[in-house]
């Protein structure tokens, strides 16, 4: 199967009580989804779960069998509630302990006397893991088979992404185009459904918004085929003009 017709998917598993409690707002899904789309990998599922070992193990095992790639965020830090690494080891039924390369990186990163028990913990991971280097704070993430474990801090996660470019193999890049209209969904629903019926290889979604005291609808087109996306775009613009709906630039 060549890159043009290869379909590659992924799931994102957000791990952390702070997300579920509302204390921390997750932004990693947006970043990872956009990056993966650009690599030709479609994110098809996102889950948010607590820092509970059996729940992490269950979700890892479900997702890694269902998707080409699984990305986890959170739970690989130095504190007692950071249990993602040991839970992933349990999911794969492999040993959990110090990764020699990770230990050396962290030992060299910290000053003498600063490499304490908590920081040493960040060098523990499933055996035979590949490292995901961390240019921001030293502590690496890791890869085991098709599971990629990343930190939950957005700035650190984002700085590590460049080290994954040669670690995944995606299909054709997923393209996206947005049409913003000054209308309501009910006004365009029937026409939009007709376009979708004619353009099955283009994912078409409509999303209402409220901005500047006025209601609008964003129509988002997503496809790996630029010609088909252009065709669906033209069909939408055609009925928008016929209905005299205002385009928002």
Overview of this protein structure:
This protein has 249 residues and is of the alpha/beta class. The chain has two domains: 8-164, MoaB/Mog-like domain (Molybdenum Cofactor Biosythetic Enzyme, Chain A, 3-Layer(aba) Sandwich); 175-248, EIF_2_alpha (Alpha-Beta Plaits), CATH 3.30.70.1130. The protein is 37% helix and 28% strand. The protein contains nine helices and twelve strands. The chain has helices spanning 17-20, 28-38, 53-66, 84-92, 100-109, 117-121, 154-160, 185-198, 226-242; strands at 8-15, 41-49, 69-73, 96-98, 124-126, 130-132, 141-144, 147-150, 175-182, 203-211, 214-223, 246-248. A six-stranded mixed beta sheet has the order 2-1-3-8-7-6, with helices on both faces. A four-stranded antiparallel beta sheet has the order 10-11-9-12, with helices on one face. The radius of gyration is 22 Å and the shape is elongated. The relative contact order is 0.13.
Give the tags.
single chain; 249 residues; alpha/beta; Molybdenum Cofactor Biosythetic Enzyme, Chain A; Alpha-Beta Plaits; 2 domains; six-stranded mixed β-sheet; four-stranded antiparallel β-sheet; 9 helices; 12 strands; elongated
């Amino acid at each position: 199967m060549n890159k043009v017709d290869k379909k590659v998917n992924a799931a994102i598993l957000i791990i952390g009580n702070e997300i579920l409690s509302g204390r921390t707002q997750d932004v990693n899904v947006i970043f990872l989804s956009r990056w993966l789309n650009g690599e030709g990998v479609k994110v098809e599922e996102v889950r948010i779960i607590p820092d509970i070992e059996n729940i992490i193990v269950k979700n890892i095992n479900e997702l890694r069998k269902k998707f080409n790639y699984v990305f986890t965020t959170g739970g690989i830090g130095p504190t007692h509630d950071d249990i993602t690494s040991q839970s992933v080891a349990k999911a794969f039924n492999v040993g959990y302990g110090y990764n020699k390369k990770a230990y050396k990186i962290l030992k060299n990163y910290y000053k003498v006397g600063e490499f304490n028990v908590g920081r040493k913990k960040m060098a523990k991971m499933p055996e035979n893991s590949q490292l995901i280097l961390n240019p921001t704070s030293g502590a690496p993430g890791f890869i085991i088979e098709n599971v990629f474990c990343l930190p939950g801090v957005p700035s650190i996660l984002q700085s590590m992404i460049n080290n994954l470019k040669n670690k995944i193999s995606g299909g054709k890049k997923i393209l996206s185009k947005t049409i913003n209209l000054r209308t309501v969904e009910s006004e365009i629903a029937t026409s939009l459904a007709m376009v979708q019926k004619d353009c099955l290889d283009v994912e078409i979604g409509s999303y209402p918004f409220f901005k500047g005291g006025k209601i609008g609808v964003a129509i988002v087109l997503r496809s790996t085929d630029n010609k088909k996306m252009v065709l669906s775009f033209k069909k939408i613009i055609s009925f928008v003009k016929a209905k005299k709906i205002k385009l928002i630039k």
